Amino acid sequence: MQELGVSLYIKRDDMTGGVELGGNKVRKLEFLLADASANGNDSVVTIGGEQSNHCRATAAAARMIGMEPNLILRTRRANAVQQDFGFVGNILFDRMVGSTIFTCTPGEYGRIGSEALVKKVCEHLESIGKKPYGIPVGGSNGLGSWGYIKGVEELEAQWNQEEGSPALDHVVFACGSGGTAAGIALGLAMCESLSPQVHAVGVCDDPDYFYDYVAGIAEEMGLESDEGGTLDFIQQHMTAHQGKGLGYASSTPEELEFVSQFSLETGIALDPVYSGKALFHFVTKVLTANPDDYRGKNILFWHTGGALGMYDKGNDLSLDTIAPVYRLDVYGNDGGGRSITI
Hints:
alpha/beta; 16% strand; 2 domains; Rossmann fold; 40% helix; 342 residues; single chain; 12 helices; five-stranded parallel sheet
């Protein structure tokens, strides 16, 4: 990026809401849980992967407003229960706030579908006298995505305070469930003072899927396009990139090395599932494919959070090469190996 004279800015949504709520999900939850509260619901049900940032944020936010969290976690360890399920990363926070956790396998998730699974758990809770509010995977629907319309308004105000009023040329972010992409793409399409190219880097599925899904959310939000329909409108205002690599939540050694090196050079942690995978793909594939398109440009990376997911990848990061650990030989006994005498 230095060779191209690129200026990289980072919008730190990973710093919103503290450890419990940090990341992009809280923007959607602000709208979704307001709706649940207005409807008089006493509990919430949502769904995601085993280390879902969305599920963790939903569980914490629900407790903050007096609702009981119920989480459906997709995992290859679906038969592990209670103590066997562990306390790593997001799961620790899920359980600290007293979430009731239901598990399903990736195969069950694919065959039955996330919406149907949420509906089944909601029906179960209703049968025992609860009034649950179902939230889709990632909080990604027409209501939740309004959180990122407001997010773009926030970005516009922040960017226009930059000294010298630089142009914002590109906005890049990870795309998983599509709600963040819908809000950012629509928000920037309506923005009067900013007109960057929008890049949604998919960490699962493929670009055609995201175009269709984001268009569906846009229609749910009330978008009406006179020229070519909603899908064409989205494709005009957002480029979806294929950045999933080995697949959702699966990291290549090169991706993990990029995450480690980025932390070393900037002090900013990228998670391996979303932000790390997305920025890795954009820098190593998109920039290098058409370098002249980005030469001297201002690029904003919208960091959507997820650092707790690093705990699940810790053993794969090869951190000994950049952060060695030595035994301090305070008595001069020459312990050898990884020791230093003072």
